[in-house]
């Protein structure tokens, strides 16, 4: 209990190196790790009789926290704990009122588990544009009651500084079904503590009374014109994780500089406020509102604006199987189908109810494909269903599978489903907006590492296509800007199975995507066309776009930096590669340095960031490859796509050419053997 496994230690060590924390850090970094100056704390071992001692951690104010244990163990803990760690632990035990996490830390001290204490206290979770995401457990590096309180206090103060009418409009808070009994943490518990923080400051809170899909939070922000939103979820992460996702008053995820401002505000508000731990005070409070019923009603009314073939849906002969993968999506997808006049989909019984243990899957991520969908395939085969819809646990993403004539199941990639949904939404929009001028103010968006298929459709059909940086935070904010300018944004997607099909939610939404995909499949079925056949038709008309994405694991930041610097000086100083094996490079965009040789002044249009590595290469054969580091994992990811001209339908040859390009990129750009990179394991 309370242990940190070796892989977690290695990961936390990687995080520590990334963010430059060390045991000799400055005073400011010590405070960042939850510590106080040394005059406020001391540690001592005192004898308690033969063979037993206690470790006393003295904290500011003269009180002590005693941890009983074996005398040898207590002495070891005292002599092994460096001053910074002693201070961090003592401050934590002073502030933490959750007996489970507090006792876990006391036990680690008593047992002399120095490495595990360092993992818990060496560095605070980094608050970024995605908020927080980490394992649930004790310490500043993990999700728990105290870190939720500290984070919310910082966010609250930041909102007070930046939004004048915060106490009139308020915030919304939602949560999924995750729970971690050993540490006493759960999404609902974290949401209530966050609500307590705001209400203690006189700020109205719209706290959902039950679990809800992530997209309902940004929808509520926009629909009720609130100041901000918080969603407590770790989405598709492993069961031990949780997260804290933040939305700004425009209904989109935060982008810089808000992330930095909130992070600084958190550091300034670490000590829990007087009423921080008493979440009972919110019950019956006039500042607490439950938006569950009204938002459910309004969302499913608004989604009907995107139902274009109600009579076909009502008479559809297609059977759909749906899985929520032990998450929150079941009842909401059922409601979406009813809103579109469909019969409700068949739910995978073993996976339809929320279960924080995710007992039937290794990873609760439908992006993993067939491994997560085994039970769905079994039910579909039994019931004669040809289409499977799968949401991730917080229902903001969607995977789709279709049974082929061979009897095999095809799981569409995120790029393939993006092509289908983009084609479908443009087709439906065009039917209701036939005026030639209308297309000039219509936009679709995709992240820069996603397929360029929307660009090809836009070139042929006349609408606008824009790329953004990776992540829906960028697409949501850009969509908001365009809508404010009077433009029509019909669709946005990312290759990681995220789709914004209805712009009243400025984030990916797996609920709306599921029912819109079902309507598309039902419409095509009336033409005796399958989803797979329609995808081929799209590629025949606009050009084949085939992709291959993967990653390498590397825990050494110096190796990663050198790898990217070598690419920047590949053919001499400040000279990017001109070839990759036999493939000619025709364009380079480096969003770390801001270089883009496709622009007249060689300056990238997209925002740049020196804190992350990201280079995109364009090749003479129509290939595009992006190499980037992950902000949350020790990975170097790559995204490759071969974009063929319309009429080039030799799919086998195109796949071989892409495979050859990927092999060359791995050999010449990644150099995995030289750099000791670990390949992705299937």
Automatic annotation (TrEMBL):
<keyword id="KW-0597">Phosphoprotein</keyword>
<dbReference type="InterPro" id="IPR005846">
    <property type="entry name" value="A-D-PHexomutase_a/b/a-III"/>
</dbReference>
<dbReference type="InterPro" id="IPR036900">
    <property type="entry name" value="A-D-PHexomutase_C_sf"/>
</dbReference>
<keyword id="KW-0413">Isomerase</keyword>
<feature type="domain" description="Alpha-D-phosphohexomutase alpha/beta/alpha">
    <location>
        <begin position="414"/>
        <end position="542"/>
    </location>
</feature>
<feature type="domain" description="Alpha-D-phosphohexomutase alpha/beta/alpha">
    <location>
        <begin position="298"/>
        <end position="403"/>
    </location>
</feature>
<dbReference type="GO" id="GO:0000287">
    <property type="term" value="F:magnesium ion binding"/>
</dbReference>
<dbReference type="InterPro" id="IPR005841">
    <property type="entry name" value="Alpha-D-phosphohexomutase_SF"/>
</dbReference>
<dbReference type="InterPro" id="IPR016066">
    <property type="entry name" value="A-D-PHexomutase_CS"/>
</dbReference>
<dbReference type="InterPro" id="IPR016055">
    <property type="entry name" value="A-D-PHexomutase_a/b/a-I/II/III"/>
</dbReference>
<keyword id="KW-0313">Glucose metabolism</keyword>
<keyword id="KW-0479">Metal-binding</keyword>
<dbReference type="InterPro" id="IPR005845">
    <property type="entry name" value="A-D-PHexomutase_a/b/a-II"/>
</dbReference>
<dbReference type="InterPro" id="IPR005844">
    <property type="entry name" value="A-D-PHexomutase_a/b/a-I"/>
</dbReference>
<dbReference type="Pfam" id="PF02878">
    <property type="entry name" value="PGM_PMM_I"/>
</dbReference>
<dbReference type="GO" id="GO:0005634">
    <property type="term" value="C:nucleus"/>
</dbReference>
<dbReference type="Pfam" id="PF02879">
    <property type="entry name" value="PGM_PMM_II"/>
</dbReference>
<dbReference type="GO" id="GO:0008973">
    <property type="term" value="F:phosphopentomutase activity"/>
</dbReference>
<dbReference type="Pfam" id="PF02880">
    <property type="entry name" value="PGM_PMM_III"/>
</dbReference>
<protein>
    <submittedName>
        <fullName>Phosphoglucomutase-2 isoform X1</fullName>
    </submittedName>
</protein>
<comment type="similarity">
    <text>Belongs to the phosphohexose mutase family.</text>
</comment>
<keyword id="KW-0460">Magnesium</keyword>
<dbReference type="GO" id="GO:0005737">
    <property type="term" value="C:cytoplasm"/>
</dbReference>
<keyword id="KW-0119">Carbohydrate metabolism</keyword>
<dbReference type="GO" id="GO:0006006">
    <property type="term" value="P:glucose metabolic process"/>
</dbReference>
<dbReference type="GO" id="GO:0006166">
    <property type="term" value="P:purine ribonucleoside salvage"/>
</dbReference>
<keyword id="KW-0963">Cytoplasm</keyword>
<feature type="domain" description="Alpha-D-phosphohexomutase alpha/beta/alpha">
    <location>
        <begin position="125"/>
        <end position="269"/>
    </location>
</feature>
